[in-house]
Amino acid sequence: MSWTDMAVNGRVLVVDDAMENIQILHGALQDEHEVLFAMDGPRALEIARTQQPDLILLDAVMPGMDGYAVCKELLAAPETSDIPVIFVTALKSPEDETRALGAGAADFISKPVNAAVVRARVRTQLTVKRQRDALRALILTDALTGVANRRAFDERLDAEWRRCGRAGLPVALILVDIDHFKLYNDHYGHQAGDATLVQFATAMRRAAARTQDLVARYGGEEFAILLPQLDGRGATGVAHRLMTELEQMAIPHAASPTASRLTASMGIACMVPGEHSIPADLIQVADALLYQAKAEGRNRYKLGGADCAA
Ligand SMILES: Nc1nc2c(ncn2[C@@H]2O[C@H](COP(=O)(O)OP(=O)(O)OP(=O)(O)O)[C@@H](O)[C@H]2O)c(=O)[nH]1
Questions:
Q1: Is 181 in the pocket of ligand 1 (CB under 6 A)?
Q2: Which of 32, 79, 155, 221 is catalytic?
Q3: For residue range 54-99, what is the model confidence (pLDDT) as tens digits?
Q4: Dihedral sign computed on CA atoms, order 56, 58, 62, 64
Q5: Is the Cβ atom of 178 under 6 angstroms away from ligand 1?
Q6: What is the rounded distance in angstroms from the CA atom of residue 95 to the CA atom of residue 99?
Q7: Least packed by Cβ within 10 Å: which of 2, 185, 206, 306?
Q8: Residues in Cβ contact with 298 at an 8 Å cutoff, skipping those fewer than 6 apart
Q9: Closest ligand 1 atom to the C-alpha of 192?
Q10: CA 175/CA 193 separation, integer angstroms
Q11: In the chain, which stretches have pLDDT less than 70?
């Protein structure tokens, strides 16, 4: 399927205070796209947040919150900042057009609209967005295991730290390190080691299955499980599930001095982000506990952190 074919689909939010204009745009787009609509700015922001359209057609002049203000808020919120906006407006001067583009709009269509032009502009923006989304997914994914990579982990940890901090909710982190993986590679070969890392990642995804959980490859054979809004008890539950998964998978590790199958050690940290703490504090606590779990014999988890009562 080409990029253009993919772009034919997609969800478009039409925002206009006049039902007549919404009907015209709906008529132009309904054969190729799923069309949502809103008749004022606050409703548009709500739909953008909750239904994640791929593109927004936005009327510049509306009573109350105008299109420029809507555009500014869309850009300011991480969950809507990636949605492209096309301004649709009766204002036609170069100044109006410049103002719309300056506000962050991707394109500008003048009223009265021509259906063929609207369709073509929408297709172009959706194509660009699809390409950008695909590139972003590539940049944020670990090529071997398919889980998030370190860059994605760092971004999400920062975002969740701020979000949970505002809400007074905990953030839990499990750092997971496969036991004696060097010996595994030495015994079974690097390719078998690669295949085992893939299996291991699958086990982690099963153990941390809420939509907000993030499994990431943190280093070579070290992984991180980010668990927003989870306390020590919840995080321990995830660690326990991972141990059970590994037990059931029973991947032989004949070279391990501590077990006959593949095992892992984990450090679990849990904090409610405060004014004087930073995400690195959470990592540091989890890392120290992981080290402790290794030192105490491996195949176990250790729990700690300021707000980590399990
Ligand atoms: N097959 C494979 N091995 C990897 C990959 N990334 C890292 N490793 C290996 O993981 C091993 C990590 O070894 P160490 O850091 O010494 O740790 P360990 O042998 O697991 O020992 P402990 O952590 O102390 O239990 C090294 O041999 C790396 O080569 C990878 O992508 N594929």
A1: yes
A2: 221
A3: 999 999 999 999 999 999 999 999 889 999 999 998 887 888 888 8
A4: positive
A5: yes
A6: 6
A7: 2
A8: 179, 180, 258, 259, 263, 265
A9: 1
A10: 19
A11: 1-8, 305-310
Domain check: are 123 and 225 in the same one?
no
Cα(32)–Cα(26) distance, integer angstroms: 10
79 carries an active-site annotation: no
Q: 269: CA distance to ligand 1 center in Å?
A: 23
Closest C-alpha among 251, 80, 279, 260 to residue 173: 279
State whether the beta carbon of 220 lies less than 6 angstroms from ligand 1. Answer: yes
The pTM for the full model equals 0.81
Tokens (6 digits) for 31: 């054969």
pLDDT digits (tens, 9 = 90+) for 167-184: 999 999 999 999 999 999
Distance 182 CA to ligand 1 centre (A): 4
**Domain containing residue 19:** 3-139
126 and 181 fall within a common domain: no
